Amino acid sequence: MENTNIYVPYKMKIEKITEEAPFVKTFRLKFVNEEDASKFSFRTGQFGEYSVYGEGESTFCIASAPTREGYIECTFREAGRVTKSLANLDEGDVIGFRGPYGNIFPIEEWKGKNLLFIAGGIALPPMRSVIWNCLDLRENFKDVTILYGARSVSDLVYKHELAEWNARPDVNLVTTVDPGGEDPDWKGKVGFVPTILSEMSPSSENTIAIVCGPPIMIKFTFPVLEKLGFTDENVFTTLENRMKCGFGKCGRCNVGKVFVCKDGPVFTLKQMKELPNEY
Amino acid sequence: MARIGVFICHCGENISATVDCPKVSEVAAKFPGVAFSTDYKYMCSDPGQSLVVNAIKEHKLTGIVVSACSPRMHEPTFRRACAEGGLNPYQCEMANIREHCSWVHEKGDKTDQKAIDIVRMMVEKVKRNNALLPIKVPVTKTALVIGGGVAGIQAALDIANAGHKVIMVERDPSIGGHMSQLSETFPTLDCSQCILTPRMVEVAQNPNIKLYTYAEIESVEGFVGNFNVKIRKKAKSVDETLCNGCGMCTTKCPNKKNPNEFELGMGNRPAIYVPFPQAVPNIPVIDKTQCTYYKNGKCKICEKVCQPKAIRFDQEDEIIEVAVGAIALCTGFDIKKTDFFPEYGYGKYKDIIDGLQFERLASASGPTSGEIRRPSDGQVPKKIVFVACAGSRDPAKGIEYCSKICCMYTAKHAILYKHKVHDGQAYIFYMDIRAAGKNYDEFTRRAIEEDQAQYIRGRVSRIYERDGKLIVVGADTLMNAQTVEIEADMVVLATAGVANKGAEELAQKLHVSYDQHKFFSEAHPKLKPVETNTAGIYLAGACQSPKDIPESVAAASGVAGKIACLFANSELTREPLIAMVDRQAPPMYSSCTGCFLCQPVCPYNAIEREEVKDRNGNLVRELAFINPGLCQGCGTCVAVCKSKSIDIEGYTNLQMYAEVDALLNS
Amino acid sequence: MEIINKLIDKSALATLIERFTKSGKEVFAPVKSKGISEFARVETIQDIDFETIATKQSAKSLVFPKVEKILSYEKTFDDVIVNNVDYTQFPEVIAFGNRPCDAAGFIPLDAIFAGELVDEIFKARLEKLTVISISCKKADDYCFCTSVNGGPGNTTGSDILLTETTADEYFVEIVTEKGKAILDANTDLFKDTAAIDKTPFLAKLEQQFTQEVINEKLNGIFESDIWDKQAMRCVGCGACAFVCPACGCFDIQDETKGKNGVRHRCWDSCGFKIFTLHTSGHNPREKQAQRWRQRIYHKFSYQPEQQKLFGCVGCGRCSRACPSDMNIAEHLKEIAVL
Amino acid sequence: MEDIKKLARELLADNKVQLVLGFENGTANRVRPAFFTTPEAVDKLIYNEFCIQNIALYLKKDICQHAASLAITANPNVVRSILQLAAENQIKEEKIKIIGITHEGKCVGLLDFKAAEEFSKTQPKGLKDEDKALIEKIQAMSLEEKFDYWVEAFSPCIKCYACRASCPMCYCGKCNVESNNPQWIPVAPHKYGNMEWHMMRAMHLAGRCINCGECNRSCPVDIPLNILSYMLSDFVLEEFESEAGLSAVFTPALSSYTMVDKENFIK
Questions:
Q1: B173: domain CATH number?
Q2: Domain count of the fold of chain B
Q3: What is the residue range of B339's domain?
Q4: Domain map of chain A by residue range?
Q5: pLDDT class for D263, splitting at 50, 70, 90?
Q6: What residues does C166 pair with on adjacent strands?
Q7: Which residue of B354, B378, C53, D47 is 20 to 30 Å from C225, comparing CA positions?
Q8: Same structural domain for residues B45 and B72?
Q9: Residue B343 above 60 pLDDT?
């Protein structure tokens, strides 16, 4: 019987595990079946449902860029039942993956523009997919600025890639940690993301801002962007809500009339403003 | 990324003779998450431990299961090895395939399977272990000694001499306890008071000891290293700082016909009194129940005669709060009143007394100045019968245990009697002579051989009076259970030693456990004889069970040693295997509902109420909080928590569930 | 398809049901047991309760059971074998004697489970289902189908609708191809007739509001305090959603025994606090009032927007089942006059 | 009923309480819980023999938690619930005024906790004849029959949790069935999931249930859950001489130990 059951995940093997920060890990996943791999494609911004059989499914974005073919990556923090059991797995173990689900960052439309990425803490993963996607198509965009903050130095994820971005002449990377989170070797900034953003005062001219972070960071970052002259259409963010199915049937992730899983997770600030405050 | 190492120990042949260790190791190697598995003849040996240490490093293990003996035996050994390998020591679990498997089963496939199952359970458990850090608790280097008998005195002096502060609380107006009431001590016949009083004075004079007499424990809160104790200092009606102990008040008190407790009713004392001449402190107290002024509002003669003006009729009980780090419980014992033996006529016949009363009669400071005279008419008894085991070793009527000291003191009484009444004859009814102890048997033999005490092996069935004589009827089991009848002038019953009155209440205040006889329970009958189940509270002397003087003193010194060890560091380290209430970031705070139904089940009084406040200081929730200093990790609270908000570190619900799951669903 | 009108008498109906069961079809109909009527498997017409206005639970479990396996898996040492559900083997089911509102409920359910990604399990069940409804002669205080574009003789969702015209006879409306297939296979049981005006044989139920008005009102009252007021006595159970023929929200749960396990889909309710609770403790719908509002908006605003249909069929089951008299019709009426 | 209304009106008028929790007429000839905040609103307050829903439930809901002080029309079941909730540290005496109402519907005025304890003792637990008959029937069963009976009785359960939601004693913020690490109780409403859920709930209520019967009343599929609780309460009373809802100070039999506790269950 051909598998048309939308609940049956792909089988994926954990190829590589990277410890990013305390309780944060990145899995590089490969399709076990060649056929699945050949049929599969995704675009930046999309997410999936990751299964540990016997424990359940958990939702994370695809943290790798579509331009890097042959694998997908996800980064997660140990929090609930599924993420804890995911964290217990080893390289070579098999998990399930359903996806890709959700909408995308419209990077085609951003051609010829400056990009300003603003991320906080464990919200860098969804952003990382876009960043690499854009950097892999670097000639399409003008200035690329990345502002990334975390609570402390040890909480910064993708430390190698931060170093790589930092070394690139065509990327302007600013990293910051919350006051008190620095260590003696810290060379980045100290301060909350919205404050640092104000200090940086980037131009809103011909610029797209992409913001991902904890609700409190987002709440204080939007007004700064507005002050800098960013229009609501040019500010993008991703929403997270509890999900089960991933395709708009189970009924729990909606914000007003939109399902975060189906109509999101990527929203412009303009769209966000039309949504009721239920996220 | 669990990478578990499994180490199967042969324990010589202890395990391997029954369990196929290589097979278990082979099977375990295939368990999910097991990165390394091996077996070895003696895992606890040096090479065995090195095997563990090296495997952890080589295979980058994240946890180990040592499948060997009981964790009681070698868990500390392998936790150390685990730490040496660079892991948190609590990432080590023991799978007990010796006591739980090889020792209790025959060789066979089923036994191997059981060993495999035990290992599988522990593998699943250790996968879910958390790295734990030992708990550090600050220590207040002051000890509280409850009870001022010989045990309390010894403990207090030893602790004080180790350089620590001691607070001693004594219920009576003077310290000294039962030992101060004794005449001579066995087996050396030293004068009891002569050897005790200097120690009492030492207590009074030691600058490290603060003494509260006529005081009781009101409440105890806190935990090892950090107890907060409230002491009720009962009103003596005398200002201790002014009184110079001249004794004028006691001499002039017109109300002198009160039964003297110290003499066990065999003498009188005034309403304002010092219990005995050598009392420490030598300060009188007014017995409010007897004092004419307190009863009728008139008299105050003591006040008039007191030169330093130390009498305070308006004095009230005082509550003193002290912070202490350890508590020595030395509250001693009592002897059973024999009125539950009406057939022995106690109470009915004045000349049937108990052993302690005999001590007073034989004591030079006693009511007869050391002459043996019977209470009824002051005559010197010529025939005296001692009844041992009066209530002891009698499950039917009295108590089932042996009171331990009676055999010896009865022999002593017989000797003292013979020394004082040369033409007198002592008879002793006994069950067995229990005289195990240095020079004890020699002592009882001396009573028989030198002092002609006549030992009759048998029990007394009845005592009654006939023609002014006490007729003691018993059986001599060595003479075919022939009935023996002795016409005695006086009878001394060696009544059972029992828990002191108020022991149960005190135990509850301190949260120490006690046995069915209300004697305080030690933590382990062999290996922790002076500890209680509550950390930081220790036991010495007869409050634990009947003990003689050297035993009490030895235990007291043991307690002092324990307390000195505790006080040797300013922080104490405790195993982190304790209960924790779930706490989360707001808005959840916790899944605890604050019902506090866990509070009454905690045997250690470790569950407190914690108030959760928001940023503005408003009370949001009340939650259970488990005091890490008090919790012993027993898990009772976990069982009653309906919302599953309590977990024991090292034995979390998740770990237990994984173990059961591994067993049932293999 | 144009509706075909027929007549059938009761003995023919009994024969029809017998033929269904003999041919291996599973017939589910209202059955009264211990005082309550629920859908249950029947063998003959005698088992069926024709009188109950509405069963306590809806007929939705025929296509959306309260718990359903969506896949199974077997874990080996280093692999997991996932087994699909063989939904081609589902039995043919006849829903018989349900009310028009029950039949109408399959429409919004289908809209949820179809969509861009089709839920094949649901689809297979629905395809194997034939709905033979019976029009309502009676209505009770909780019924409000006429206010939500339904009615006691509404054919929506039914393959065949029966209307009792005399003590012995039913007027038959064959609505769909599935219905026609039954007619074609059993022509001997049906009698020809012209179209009949059913009105005299139907329950009278006054319209209290219209869905369209509710839909429009909802545009401006998301932040209104009416939600707090209405939800004040809501106890937060899921009874309303579970008895609702149109509620399709579900949960996915794994259950393992040893190496083998099953992934289930089971009913869930937007009334539950943990429905939307994040692992972090944050809850987008923290208060019961928000959850009540979600229920109303979902049925009367979001579904019309997303699926061009309403998520309520006016059966009144939620109101009947509510332990604290949260009457949805009353609340909707309140909203309609805001 | 008039005296209840008068009391409620006065309490609100004198600002003694911010909220009165009671009943009003509902839809379809039903009565329903209602919340009164002004003396005028009290006109709608009713009390009659149909007002049997255990409204003590609402004491743990936001509306009552946020009110600084409140009054409640309390029939004996509600009074018992309040005392039990107080014993479990869920409500404070200073916050609540109890308008006591007997089984017969007679108002006995305001009750403080001490009076409520007395009141509670004089108002026996009501058990319907059919419930009694069912209990007798179940008690006559063998162990296996009992097990089968309950498996069958739980089988229609749809896990809507109305039993939990309408029970004043089910106040846990995170119910055991929602605790998924480990997943103690299967969530799915199948045979074992239903069995484990109801058994767990019954055990959590053993000795704490005040036997109002609300679980059964609210159950859409009519499972006799009240019988299960009642039988357990009865057992606890018999074995441990402990009864819920009689005192604001209470230690449940199942989380306490006394020397007189029987140990005859150890076989």
A1: 3.50.50.60
A2: 5
A3: 333-498
A4: 10-101, 107-238
A5: confident
A6: C169
A7: D47
A8: yes
A9: yes
Q: How far is residue D264 from each of residues B62, D202, D260, measured CA to CA in Å?
A: 46, 21, 12
Q: Is B643 on the interface with C (CB under 8 A)?
A: no
B32 touches chain C (CB under 8 A): yes
Instruction: Give a yes or no: residue B417 inside a domain.
Output: yes
pLDDT in tens, D162-201: 999 999 999 998 999 998 888 889 999 999 899 999 999 9
Give the contacts of B554 (CB within 8 A, at least 6 positions apart). none
CATH class of A107-238: alpha beta
Fold agreement (A10-101, A107-238): no
Sequence-ordered list of residues with C-beta below 8 angstroms from that of B579, at least 6 positions apart, any chain: B606, B626, B631, B633, B635, B637, B638, B646, B647, B648, B649
Structure tokens of C5? 């009108």
A93 min Cα distance to partner chain B (Å): 10
Is 1.20.120.140 the CATH number for A10-101?
Answer: no
Tell whether A229 lies on the interface with D, counting CB pairs under 8 A: no
Name residues whose C-beta falls within 8 Å of residue B304's C-beta, 6 or more positions apart in sequence: none
Q: ipTM value of the model?
A: 0.87
Q: Which residues of D touch C255 (CB under 8 A)?
A: 186, 188
Cα dihedral C236/C237/C239/C241 (nearest 10)? 60
List, for residues C194-237, the tens digit of each pLDDT value.
Answer: 989 999 999 999 999 999 999 999 998 999 999 999 999 999 99
Chain A residues in contact with B33 by the CB 8 A cut-off are 88, 90
Chosen for mutation from C73, C280, C286 (greatest number of chain B CBs closer than 10 Å) is: C280
Tell me the nearest-neighbour CA distance from C194 into chain D, angstroms.
Answer: 39
Domain harbouring B641, CATH code: 3.30.70.3270
Rounded average pLDDT over C24-34: 94
Which of A18, A19, A27, A90 to mutate to probe the B interface, most B CBs <10 Å? Answer: A90
Q: How far apart are CA A96 and CA A98, in angstroms?
A: 7
Residue D40 to chain B, least CA–CA distance (Å): 32
Three state DSSP letters for chain A: CCCCCCCCCEEEEEEEEEEEECCEEEEEEEECCHHHHHHCCCCCCCEEEEEECCCEEEEEECCCCCCCCCCEEEEEECCCHHHHHHHCCCCCCEEEEEEEECCCCCHHHHCCCEEEEEEEHHHHHHHHHHHHHHHHCHHHCCCEEEEEEECCHHHCCCHHHHHHHHHCCCCEEEEEECCCCCCCCCCCEECCHHHHHHHHCCCCCCEEEEEECCHHHHHHHHHHHHHCCCCHHHEEEECCCCCCCCCCCCCCCEECCEECCCCCCEEEHHHHHHCCCCC
Nearest CB neighbour to C284, from listed A6, A241, A250 = A241
B422 found inside a domain: yes
Closest chain C C-alpha to A53 CA, distance in angstroms: 7
Distance in Å, alpha carbon of C309 to nearest chain A alpha carbon:
14
Q: Are the CB atoms for A23 and A87 separated by under 8 Å?
A: yes
Which residues on chain C are in Cβ contact (under 8 Å) with D51? Answer: none
Position D267 in a domain: no
What integer pLDDT is reported at residue D252 of this predicted model? 80
When CB atoms are compared, the residue of D164, D187, D222 closest to C36 is D222
Structural domain includes residue B662 = no
Is any Cβ of chain C less than 8 angstroms from the Cβ of D164? Answer: yes
- pLDDT of B110 reads 96
Q: Same domain, yes or no, for D71 and D47? A: yes
* pLDDT score recorded for residue B427: 97
pLDDT tens track for C232-245: 999 999 999 999 99
Average pLDDT score over residue span B532-557: 95
Report d(CA B228, CA B536) in Å as an integer: 12
Name the residue among B156, B179, B20, B7 with its Cα closest to residue B82. Answer: B7
Q: What is the pLDDT of residue D98?
A: 96
